[in-house]
C-alpha cells in the first residue's frame, strides 16, 4: 500500500537521542541522510527557504543519475553546512514530519550531522570563537577593550583584519559591545517599586528576566525596554541571579556537550526563581526557543528542564496572556502609524501565533504589515565570509517588502534579524525592536 501524501495532523517532535552511541555512527547517518534527501528531492517544497535545499537539489541535478544515489556521499555535508536550524522547513513546509510514517525531521538530522562533525574535530577555530558568546562578551565588555573592539568593527582596515584572521565578511553587521551591561543597568533600578503580583491564567504576575548574552552585552536597551514595559503593567520584576549563554550558538555548531554544560548552569538558577513564584521572560526568541523546545527534546527525562519549559515566555506572549484577563495596560499615549513587522523564525516555530502583532495592533491608529520570511541571519551564519552574500540573498524578499511598505518603522523580534534587514536597506535607516516600539507607544 502506498504511503499517504502529506500530513493532516500537527507535527510532533521526537526526543533527540544524542547520548546513544549510534547517534554518532557515520554509516547510520549517511543512510538516514540519503533516505531523507531522497524524500526532499521528490518534494522540493522548501527550495525557497534557505540555501540548504538548493544545494541539495543542485547536487542531485548535476549527478549522473539525476537522483540522490548519484550524489557522492562526501558531498552530503555541503547541505549540512548550509543549514542554520531555523526550523521553518519542519514547522511550515514539510508534509512528512511525524506522525507521518516517513518521519522526516530535517533540522534535527542536520543537527546530528553537525554533532558528528564536531566530535571528529571538523570545526573551524573561527566558528568555535563566534559561538563562545560568554567568553567573547566578557573580554569585549571590558571598558577599554569594548572601545577598541567597537572601533575595529567600524573601521575598514579593522574589518580587513577580521576577514583575514577570522573569516568574518567585511560587509556583515557586527553588534557593538557595551561595558555597562544590561544586567548592570537593571540591577540599580529593578525591584525599586513594591507592587503586588496579580496572577492571571498561566502567569504568576511576577517576572524574572533571563537577560541573554546578546541583550546583556550587545543591546542592553532591550532589557531596559522590557523592564519599563513590565513595570508599567504593574508586574514586579527581578533578574535570574546567574546565567550563561542559553546554548543555541553551540547547538548550531553541534557541540552538544557545551549545550549540556550551559543547561547545568541555567536550569537550576531558573528553578530557584520558579519555585519562588516567578515566571521567566527572555527578550531574544532563540533563547526562549532553546528552553521551550531544544533542551526539553535533549533532556526529556529531566523534570526541571520540563518545568522551565512551562514557565518561560516570550515578552509579547506573556503580555497577551495578561490581556486576556484584562490586565494589560492599553492606555497608549502615541500612535505608531505603519509598522513593517518581521516575524522571526525562532519565534514562529514556538507555535503560539503572532503575539507581537496582536499587542502592537492594540495601539490606536497603528497598522502592522507582517513579513513571514527568514532573514537569513542566524546569529553567526550571516557574518561568515563564505555565507554572508547567501544570507543577504535569503533576506532580500524581507528587505524588498520593508522597502515597499513605506512604513514609519520596521521591526523584528530578533534584534540580529533587524540589523540584517537594515544592512540591506542601504539608506541609513535603523530597526526598532517591538519592545522599544511598545515603550514609545506608552510614552515612557
Task: Explain what this protein looks like in three dimensions.
This protein has 444 residues and is of the alpha/beta class. It has four domains: 21-120; 125-166, no CATH class; 182-322; 330-442, Rossmann fold (3-Layer(aba) Sandwich), CATH 3.40.50. It is built from 22 helices and seven strands. It has helices at residues 26-43, 52-61, 76-82, 88-93, 106-120, 125-131, 133-140, 143-153, 156-166, 182-187, 213-217, 221-232, 248-253, 256-275, 285-298, 303-311, 315-323, 345-348, 355-360, 388-405, 415-425, 434-442, and strands at 207-209, 237-239, 279-281, 312-313, 337-342, 366-371, 409-412. A four-stranded parallel sheet has the order 2-1-3-4, sandwiched between helices. α12 crosses α22 and α20 packs across α21. The longest helix is centred in the middle third of the chain and has 20 residues, at 256-275. The chain starts with 25 loop residues before the first helix and ends with a helix. The mean pLDDT is 92.
List keywords for this structure.
444 residues, alpha/beta, four-stranded parallel beta sheet, three-stranded parallel beta sheet, 22 helices, 50% helix, 6% strand
Topology summary:
Layout: H1 26-43, H2 52-61, H3 76-82, H4 88-93, H5 106-120, H6 125-131, H7 133-140, H8 143-153, H9 156-166, H10 182-187, E1 207-209, H11 213-217, H12 221-232, E2 237-239, H13 248-253, H14 256-275, E3 279-281, H15 285-298, H16 303-311, E4 312-313, H17 315-323, E5 337-342, H18 345-348, H19 355-360, E6 366-371, H20 388-405, E7 409-412, H21 415-425, H22 434-442
Parallel strand pairs: 1-2, 1-3, 3-4, 5-6, 5-7
